[in-house]
Design goal:
This protein is mainly alpha-helical. The radius of gyration is 22 Å and the shape is globular. The chain is built from 13 helices and no strands. The chain has one domain (5-170, 248-383). The protein has helices spanning 5-8, 45-69, 82-100, 104-109, 111-130, 134-167, 174-196, 208-242, 249-267, 271-295, 303-335, 343-367, 373-380. 71% of the residues lie in helices and 0% in strands.
Length: 387
């Protein structure tokens, strides 16, 4: 999803909608030719609500209440969640690659994302493979990926608030926008502090004790700002509502979900896994919608054809994610120790996954520019008036 205000804020596009037969109350997520004024959406209103924040808010809210208020045991550290990682997380990475490398024209249009950035990342990975600082390089690739992820999470959430607000006709004034976005910026800083937790800078830069003390002070300040930003964002949505704007939950939930994700990451052992899965689930509907709109662009297809197409695309994403992002660990589990399970391969594979993540974040910020008419058309063409 879009990562910057310039890329996705606001949508300079409001689809012209036509109302279909008012007696027809059905809605099929694959029926891109049918448009209803009452419920413009990326998939369906309910699926959008669930995937972009509703499910994570409900599940994490219940578990946080159980763990913090009732002192109930919650621990995901020892669980084996590889199936969910393959079905949701890995496929959301490969979906961005399908968007970028779908055609030669798309590659040439995004040369930095498609050619130059991956070339630089591969060069760094090659340096790790054949140089003498392998562990140091991989460790810093993982750190860079963790820090970049802060921008990715919060940028995607804002993109969804902006997109759902726009397609449903909601407009925020300047103060309201600042209040909503400022919370995401504060959470970005909190994410960076999480990423830096347990990492000490070189002692000749700053004494470890001084750094730990400064980190603790910064952490408390940021937590205070998070609380203030939650109130400010809530006020902004209420303010827009008081001006007569109908604020859909789909516009609020991506913002609100962030305020559940970070406490869940902090308080629940192994909680980050579920934060990442929630983020990936939030993302998947958008590239799949683009895929469906591209498929339906030149000729009409039946619902069955569309469902088969989307099933095939999704299976392809899952299989490619399984091979490239889980291959060596799964091979070691299935076949026992081998070249793919050596310490060097494990370290390099960790670096490779970090490079894929960094590249994915960069792709996301490049291809989701809705000021670009082509991107608007491919994502939102199912909302346009069709003759």
């Amino acid at each position: 999803m879009p990562q910057s205000e310039s890329a996705f804020d606001p949508l300079h596009f409001a689809p012209t909608l036509r109302t279909s037969d008012p007696c027809d109350k059905t809605f099929d997520p694959c029926e891109t030719r049918r448009v209803t004024e009452r419920a413009p959406s990326i998939t369906t209103p309910l699926v959008d609500l669930i995937t972009t924040g509703g499910l994570s808010i409900l599940a994490m809210g219940v578990l946080l209440l159980w763990a913090l208020a009732f002192k109930g045991p919650v621990d995901f550290v020892d669980g084996d969640w590889v199936v969910l990682m393959i079905l949701i997380n890995s496929s959301h990475f490969t979906a961005s690659y399908r968007l970028l490398y779908v055609s030669r024209q798309e590659i040439l249009r995004n040369r930095w994302s498609a050619i130059f950035v991956p070339a630089m990342l591969l060069a760094i990975l090659g340096w790790a493979a054949f140089g003498s600082a392998q562990a140091w390089i991989v460790r810093n690739l993982v750190l860079a990926s963790s820090i970049y992820l802060a921008w990715h999470y919060t940028g995607q959430a804002w993109g969804m608030v902006s997109s759902f607000s726009r397609i449903l006709g909601v407009e925020y004034n300047g103060i309201e926008r600042v209040c909503i976005r400022s919370g995401m910026r504060v959470l970005l800083v909190l994410h960076v502090l999480f990423a830096l937790s347990g990492r000490l800078p070189p002692a000749d830069w700053i004494a470890p004790a001084s750094y730990i003390e400064a980190y603790g002070i910064a952490f408390k300040i940021v937590l205070g700002l998070v609380c203030v930003s939650l109130l400010a964002g809530g006020w902004a949505f209420q303010s827009a509502r008081s001006r007569g704007q109908h604020i859909p939950l789909r516009a609020v939930f991506p913002w609100l979900a962030l305020y559940f994700w970070y406490p869940f990451w902090y308080f629940i052992p192994g909680g980050f896994l579920w934060v990442q899965l929630s983020h990936a689930l939030q993302y998947l509907a958008f590239p799949l919608r683009v895929e469906l709109n591209r498929y339906d662009r030149t000729k009409s297809h039946t619902r069955a054809q569309k469902r088969i197409r989307m099933a095939c695309v999704y299976i392809g994403l899952v299989v490619s994610g399984l091979v490239f992002l889980h291959g060596p660990p799964l091979a070691a589990t299935a076949f026992g120790p081998g070249w793919y399970s050596s310490e060097t391969i494990r370290t390099l594979f960790t670096g490779f996954v970090a490079c894929v993540a960094i590249h994915h974040y960069f792709i996301d910020g490049a291809v989701w520019k809705l000021r670009n008419p082509k991107v608007r058309r491919e994502l939102l063409s199912h909302l346009e008036a069709r003759s």
